[in-house]
Amino acid sequence: MTTSGDSPRFVRVLASKDVLALAFGAMIGWGWIVMTGNWIVSAGSLGAVTAFLLGGVAIVLVGLTYAELAAAMPQAGGEHVYSYRGLGHMPSFICTWAIVLGYMTVVSFEAVALPTVVENIVPGYSVGYLWTVAGWEVEATWALVGVVGSLLMMWVNYIGIRTAALLQKLVTLLIVAVGLLFLTGALFSGESGNLTPFFTGESSVAGGIMSVLVMVPFMFVGFDVIPQAAEEIDMPHRDIGRLLVFSVLLAVFWYAAIIFFTAYVLSPQGIDLDALAVPDAMAAAFSSAWAGKLMVLAGIAGIITSWNAFYIGGSRAIYALAKADMLPRAFAKLHPRYNTPTNAILLIGIVTSLAPLLGRSAMVWLVNAGGLGIVLAYLFVAASFLVLRYREPHMDRPFVVPAGKLVGIVAFVLSIALIMLYMPTSPSALAPVEWAIFGAWMLGGAAMYGWARVRYGLHAPDSSVQT
Known about the structure:
The protein has 17 helices and two strands. It is mainly α.
């Protein structure tokens, strides 16, 4: 808390365990509970693991550029700070506004995932038909669970980073404990014969791996939350970079291990794509239904960790834009007691609390459009990394990436490749409605950016992005 008479400011309270829980919890989320069975069926046991290892290498390379920049410029806003220094005013806005879209859609997704997973614990609780969106019937009690969860998460983040960090640590510990219990049980109850076929695919082995690989980068979204909260991290700057990279490696191991041991316990014929494969594998490993329910609870914990982390990341990104006069200054307000960007948090809470009212089907549109925003930000960060390596070779870099220019070039190329996955020529291209969402978001941001230029004038932002 700031003392009386001081201007509110971020406080450095996040220790290494808090930061690791923040990043790791954001990356694992709920996707591994829902998608593991699909990955195994699509690519085979080792094919799915291979896809995550290959994708993990790509994300580690992108993460390395973040690590060096986060250690060199530990200010709130992450991508905003790096892209402003490397590329200038407008590219910085495009980069940060794009990743805010990604964060908002992830938070919206979690508001929909919560009532969805509750159905696995309390079947039939969804009653009170409201309307139908994209073929999905929205029920009142179902939507209410998502809205209440969203408001509670908003409140947790509103009252301070300490509360949010404590929640993140406790819930991440629950996920890890249940995950280790599963791996131990699977090790003694699984059979190697269940792993066959090792590789498969609808048209070819390579096609099977690619069908999983295309989803991998978006399972790892979350390490970039660390730079957003950099002004609240109480660690040596060099260690921020190291911990960011370690969190990515830990997430790679988690996904690969969960996939392998699920396949080790369940044969391909035993995987029901209409059910949740990991809880089914947990129940089979311990020959008990309660074990499967416990894994579903770990999935709910994953929803909370991802939800919480992206509230932190999104609100700090909006704050940084407003502090630099790229958005209305009201969003740069910090609470005098809690030292949190209250208006930015309220904006995220209000917008994303509406998500459950759209039903589950519409969320696919939002998540896909948000995914493009995230990889677009990755491209801008990689470009900023390269520009600063060439233009400011003597910048103080507490964490230095070995063979940095080569890593930066590869990260830049990989970011372009990820963006191409969304283009009309790609099998995974965005649908027209998803392009409309992305376009409307960027045009809305452009309108606010233009208003801010007229209202405040175009000038160098505050010291948070100065050299």
